[in-house]
Amino acid sequence: MNYSKITTAALALTLTIGFATQSCAPMNNMAQEKTVMVGGAPMYPSKNIVENAMNSKDHTTLVTAVKAAGLVETLQSEGPFTVFAPTNAAFNKLPAGTVETLVKPENKAMLTNILTYHVVPGKISAKDLSMWIKKNDGKYMAKTVQGEELTFWMKGMDLYVTDSKNNTAKITTADVNQSNGVIHVIDTVLMP
């Protein structure tokens, strides 16, 4: 019996199986991730905020605004960030022409100001918000990346956020985990 041929064949088979397993691992890991459906697409915790938002058909206006404001690279960075992501329907509540005006290059600073008002540093879960609200007599305030504060409160089991102009947004989908933070989907655009 030729042991060197058997050993060579076994080594080749081991390497082949090893490479096949390695090349399938990312797909298997992604398939096993706990996802949340947003805008008809699964949101993968292994992807960053921008990668996931781009797949949501409910957030096309937000993605367009983020690109126009030049915030893509920032929201793809390590973070962590907590993003309160308005849906297309939320943007549609704004007066006619508002979005079209905001995404013009000459309005980049104003758009950036609005978008960064939807971002809080750190990764804050709905459970964290609920706990902090209860500990603070029914309201919790958090400073945004933009610099002003948002006020969080609850009605029953629902979480809400109020901006500095007293606009109120309901968190419609909470805890959409990302590789660099978390997204909470909201039904109203917040204004600083």
TrEMBL record:
- Domain named FAS1 is located at 46-190
Which keywords has UniProt assigned to this entry? Signal
Q: Which Pfam families match?
A: Fasciclin
Give the range the annotation lists for the signal sequence: 1-25
* InterPro entries in UniProt: Adhesion/Biosynth-related (IPR050904), FAS1_dom_sf (IPR036378), FAS1_domain (IPR000782)
Return the GO cellular component terms, semicolon-separated: extracellular space
PANTHER family under this entry? FI19380P1, PERIOSTIN-RELATED
What is the protein named?
Fasciclin domain-containing protein
Q: From which organism does this entry originate?
A: Kaistella carnis
Lineage, opening ranks: Bacteria, Pseudomonadati, Bacteroidota, Flavobacteriia, Flavobacteriales
